Amino acid sequence: MNKPMKSKNSTGNKRLLPMLLAVIVVLLVVLLFFITTGSKSSGSAELEGLPNYTDVKGTFVVDGLKYEKQPHLGKEDAKVKVIEFADFKCPACKKWTATYLDTFIKDYVDTGKVQFFFMNFAFIDRDSYLAASAGEAIYQQSNEKFWEYVHKLYANQGDESKIWATQKFILKFVKDNIEGIDYGQFEQDLKNHTYMYDVKEDFKIAGAYGVNGTPKFMVNGVLLPDSSYEGLSAAIESALTEAK
């Protein structure tokens, strides 16, 4: 009995199938490679311009709180000087600002009792440093605009666990929200890390005085044990009494 002969088409199809599968696998590998490298380069682009404290060189000497270098509110002859140590990525700082700052200004700053200062303690992540240096750049142009930056940046605060205050974000945020400054100068200062030394200096000073988190408050040079509004008010009233 003669065996039936296999058709040429059947044999060809069987040979073609593995080749097609191989081509599909190669295409999938290439596609996955481009997707992966694309997302990595996109992420790298977002991280560009983020500073490290180790990149900031200089001699840091802690010889006082340097009130004269800090953004401020209130009269110079106020009997009590209060410093807030803060990080723009800190959710508790955002909450304190939204809940208490306006009341604090009304009760203590506008009445001439307190001169209030803001001091960076940028410790959460690399974008903390960048957001702080952006604030310094704005302050160098306008003390008033710095406080506008504080309010608005906290209102637009991102997730503490993620890097959100990137160079791209801050440039767009300031352009859209802070009017009345030289934006070109601000952009140059941010990209060149012009005021990163000042941010690191604040960090060194704060650490030397015992600051280890945010928000923290200091009243006439004394660091308070907690960040409650009640504790701050009590310390201010005590200092006012001593000053009489």
Outline the fold blueprint.
Layout: H1 8-47, E1 72-73, E2 80-86, H2 91-109, E3 114-120, H3 126-141, H4 143-155, H5 167-177, H6 183-191, H7 196-208, E4 216-219, E5 222-223, H8 229-243
Parallel strand pairs: 2-3
Antiparallel strand pairs: 1-3, 2-4, 4-5
Helix pairs in contact: 3-4, 3-7, 5-6
Describe the overall structure:
- The protein is α+β, with helices and mostly antiparallel strands.
- The protein has a single domain, classed as Glutaredoxin (3-Layer(aba) Sandwich).
- Helix content is 56%, strand content 9%.
- The protein contains eight helices and five strands; from the N terminus they run H-E-E-H-E-H-H-H-H-H-E-E-H.
- Strands 1-3-2-4-5 form a five-stranded mixed beta sheet.
- Strand 2, helix 2 and strand 3 form a beta-alpha-beta unit.
- Helix 3 packs antiparallel against helix 4 (143-155), helix 3 packs across helix 7 and helix 5 (167-177) packs antiparallel against helix 6.
- The chain is elongated and about 100 Å long.
- It starts with 7 loop residues before the first helix and ends with a helix.
CATH topology: Glutaredoxin
Series of secondary-structure elements, N-terminal to C-terminal: HEEHEHHHHHEEH
Q: Quickly count the helices.
A: 8
Report mean pLDDT, rounded to a whole number. 88
Task: Name the helicity range.
Answer: 55-70%
What global shape is seen? elongated
| Strand portion | 5-15%
CATH architecture: 3-Layer(aba) Sandwich
